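Researcher: Let's try something more involved. This one mixes different molecule types, so please make sure each is placed in the same coordinate frame as the others.
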Amino acid sequence: MDANSFETFYIKDQIARCEDTEELRKVILPMIRTQQDQWIRKINEIVKTSGYSKSGFAELCGVSRVTLDKWLKGSIPKNRETFLRIGMAARYDVRRLDQLLQRYGQYPALYSKSLEDCVCRYVIERYCGRETIAKYQYILQRIRENIVGSGSTDKKDADTLDIATEEFDEKLSEIRDDDELEMFILENSAVFQTAYRKFYSYVMMFILVNYPGFQGSVYELAEGQGWSSSLRQCVSAIRQNKWYPTRNKIISLGLHLSMDHEQIDEMFALAHMEPLCAKNIFESVVMFILDDANLNNILDTESEEYDPDELCRYARDVMLDLNLPEVASFVSELSEIDGDVQ
Amino acid sequence: MYSKIANTLIVIERGLLTTYSLDDRESWTVGRASGTNQPDIALNTPTVSRHHGQFRKMNGIWFYLDHNGKNGTVYNSRHLEPGIKGREKPVILSEGDILIFGGGKEAVVHRKTVWSMFVTRVFDGGFKRLDTGSFSSIEIRDGEDVTRYTDPDKGTAVIKKNGVAIYMGGYAYISGDLRMTGQ
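Model: All components are placed in one shared frame. Result:
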């Protein structure tokens, strides 16, 4: 175990042992460097070693010089696509791009069964720097126009067809040129259409067995329990197989469904993301909430009925009590409804 | 590019192997048969609960749902615990996942537990039973592909391209073109 992993393991262990929010605030949180500090160091290093001027680097990333300056001072890019472009501009290979996406953007690693990631993986393994981004945009546009736009899709039954991601990656790495890539994507359009199936099925199955009144419909549960509009939009997007939610939305979904730490990590794994990270202040607070709720029977054990808002209320109380800038924006995700009203 | 998936559960109880073609139905109950309680996968081992768990399919993906009975289930060496306030935690099944029913917290394979494995293939030729009573090490061969174990644990399973081998201590089961030797 390297020093970085040991530090993460140590903090995680300390969170699990933490007795209350006061201890969390005074002893544990000071050990964690903020996500913003880590990002400032990373983006400054990337730009410095890229070989491009700041203007040139900004252009490659599809942003203005002013935006790049904001990144260098700690502003974190708002979407995953921008992180892909930063990684391509920095001439990153798959491993380093995955690290950039997960550690600094809190996004899923490259997943070649997603169309955009498939093209990204193809270009970074074959082209370099400026050419990589140009090829990425050109190929993606051509595929969207010629294949997706034409409605030419493979209708093979998703129930009976499957291919392991590793095998899929291997086939992708064997492709020789852009035309062959286009053919590969056409042949496997069913795979791209079902990329998010496992994640959504897991959520549906959890609701089906634990909230039988909703017949496995996450949408009906979201409507019925008054989830925030942004969380409902996220649920709608997953339902339509559009994309994986962001990390914070997955955490929000887990809290709304009263999932435990292990299950939220399972959802992260299905969305190709790293588990809850003890070295992120917001996530360390979430870890404390989940571990405390489970181990110390914080939730009402008298009632035999599941109260879907119970964990959210507890999480909200802890976050308000801590009053940290890193968790402030998340509080609006959580239910304000009082338990007695239910 | 594609391969046909045939989701199958292999169950070994008191030395007897049974395979279940999971795709034949949407869900399978697992438990100890008694009186009017006749689960789809009916086991006889007393440590298994009457309503022990369930295999259930959604969107072509198979899940195991443990009902958190007295002795419970060990999934890939991890005892399945209930979620917050006893909520059931679905487990997505993947090729080679091993479930041990009725053994308490430990993943121990013996006469009071039931061993099972989820695989995504069919076994047209069935399984052959071998006597491995005196072996302290085994070798499993699939053509040129060879895997060796010294003092293997009971319940060790190997999935190869052309078959499956399951070592259970005094005996073993193999399918397809695999060969198992030992000393």
